[in-house]
Design a protein that fits this description.
It holds the Pfam family Cpn60_TCP1. By secondary structure, the protein is of the alpha/beta class. It is 50% helix and 14% strand.
Length: 541
């Protein structure tokens, strides 16, 4: 019998020998035509998915979400951000176009589909030129010459917005020809002014709603429900109240006794806005309200840190009062009726407070608004800018809330995307004016670039760079017309004829040629300009 090999027994508690495998993550490198072609494939795939949403007859895109129901949208940047490719080179090309859409969205808030279509057109034409042996640097210089001319032309043909109807038309076009959304935005802008804050929220009904808060509203409600004056609506309302603004906590009510006595004598109500009202002082206030009939309410000061100080100062200027602060050498016991603010009406709910018709000096309020405007221009922080604009709106105009309704969560989400786009487009139009819509403004700019190619281009390669932009500028109109089932190249050819006026374009909704301004088919100059500049800056590289 063959002898069996003796197995060596492993001592208890010992571990087997492990073989270490080192994973080496390598980089793939492609050069020249091969690299550009791989990236162009990614650019084309992403642009194909995005461009179908362009125009009044563009399609919706349905995007699978990591959780929950799919998202339905017609917003170019949302579609672009949802796309990733397994192939690294294709994904790199897609990321370039995504950055164009994102940048345009950040600056103008709309026009992301147009920017994506332009970026693809510039990049694909540029790849052909480089493959044919052109100097990339001279191509880039030619592209920049053409972009500068395009921006100047857009400024020349731009018109300022002059009426509520034009604001509604811009909103309608951006919201995919939804006149209800356009009308809602123009109403909101009319009521809160150009500097007013307009926010968009999910509604709780089937219909869209507009809620406008005039005066100053801040998100702090009554500290105790005992301050309620209307049990049915659970609110505390006061007519012509005095307003005490205190920067620190109120802990001892003895300091306020002289002031409360003078308030009782004058038979006026009192609103106390402080960092906090501590339990003992709060209990005393509640007892005096219930037993002595003093009309009083206490709320916490809005905001935090420096933002709280600034908001309290805004309240003081709006109501004509003084902020009681030890920093300026004032104590609670020294407060006189002259230090109190005043307003026509106050409404306090569980969650917020509205101050209507403050008695502050008009010139002081205007001066404060100007100071905030200067701060808005100076700040580099988006968060700080948003907070400053909110403060400015509360002081100067008011706040409008558009509540988007719908039968389902998916419908509300899709409609909300369109409302946000329309709102951004409208703000951009108010800021820089409007140009003919439907892709006509860019098509007209392209007809003026022949002169730039002949006069300003230093060599053939720069001329080719100008021609790249010239061809790319017709892409948005052709795409929009193709999406409407017409022949884009034929329509572009008709509109490029010398005898056709700048304002005349193609109404893709009704398939007719007409004056774009008269038809209400208008685009914000800022959105169109930003799309061209951003697309050229990325794709031209």
């Amino acid at each position: 019998r063959p002898r069996q090999a003796r197995r060596r027994r492993r001592p208890a508690g010992s571990t087997p020998n492990l073989i270490a495998v080192r994973g080496l993550a390598g980089k793939e490198i492609k050069f020249g035509v091969e690299g550009r072609a791989a990236m162009l494939k990614g650019v084309d795939l992403l642009a194909d998915a995005v461009q179908v949403t362009l125009g009044p007859k563009g399609r919706n895109a349905i995007i699978q979400q990591p959780y929950g129901a799919p998202k339905i949208t017609k917003d170019g940047v949302t579609v672009a951000k949802s796309i990733d490719f397994e192939d690294k080179f294709e994904d790199m090309g897609a990321q370039l176009v995504k950055s164009v859409a994102s940048k345009t969205n950040d600056v103008a808030g709309d026009g992301t589909t147009t920017a994506t279509v332009l970026a693809r057109a510039i990049y694909s034409e540029g790849c052909k030129a480089v493959a044919a042996g052109m100097n990339p640097l001279d191509l880039r210089r030619g592209i920049q010459l053409a972009v500068n001319k395009t921006v100047d032309t857009l400024t020349d043909i731009s018109r300022p917005i002059t009426s509520k109807e034009e604001i509604g038309q811009v909103g309608t076009i951006s919201a995919n020809s939804d006149t209800e959304i356009g009308a809602l935005i123009s109403d909101a802008m009319e009521r809160v002014g150009k500097e007013g804050v307009i926010t968009v929220q999910d509604g709780k009904t089937l219909d869209n709603e507009l809620e406008v808060v005039e005066g100053m509203k801040f998100d702090r409600g009554y500290i105790s429900p005992y301050f309620i004056t209307d049990a049915k609506t659970q609110t505390c309302e006061m007519e012509n109240p005095l307003i005490l603004l205190v920067e620190k906590k109120v802990s001892n009510l003895q300091q306020l006794v002289p002031l409360l006595e003078s308030v009782i004598k004058s038979q006026q109500s009192l609103l106390i806005v402080a960092e906090d009202v501590e339990s003992e002082a709060l209990a005393t206030l509640v007892v005096n309200k219930l037993r002595a009939g003093i009309k009083v309410c206490a709320v916490k000061a809005p905001g935090f840190g420096d933002n709280r100080k600034a908001t309290m100062q805004d309240l003081a200027i709006l109501t004509g009062g003084t902020v009681i602060s030890e920093e300026v050498g004032m104590k609670l016991e020294e407060v006189q009726p002259a230090h109190l603010g005043n307003c026509k009406k106050i409404k306090v709910t569980k969650n917020d407070t509205i101050v209507l018709d403050g008695a502050g000096d008009k010139s002081a309020i205007d001066e404060r608004c100007e100071l905030i405007r200067t701060s808005v221009e100076a700040t580099k922080s988006d968060y700080e800018r948003e907070k400053l604009q909110e403060r400015l709106a509360k002081l100067s105009g008011g706040v409008a809330v558009i509540k988007v309704g719908g039968a389902s969560e998916v419908e509300v989400s899709e409609k909300k995307d369109r409302v946000v786009d329309a709102l951004n487009a409208t703000r951009a139009a108010v800021e820089e004016g409007i140009v003919p819509g439907g892709g006509k403004a860019l098509l007209y700019c392209s007809t003026l670039l022949t002169e730039v190619a002949e006069k300003d281009a230093k060599n053939m390669d720069q001329r080719i760079g100008v021609e790249i932009i010239q061809r790319a500028l017709s892409a948005p109109l052709k795409t929009l017309v193709n999406n409407a089932g017409e022949e884009g190249a034929v329509v572009a050819g008709e509109l490029m004829k010398a005898e056709v006026a700048v304002e005349t374009g193609f109404n893709a909704q009704d398939s007719i040629y007409q004056d774009m301004f008269e038809a209400g088919i208008i685009d914000p100059t800022k959105v169109t300009r930003t799309g061209v500049v951003d697309a050229a800056s990325v794709a031209g590289l």
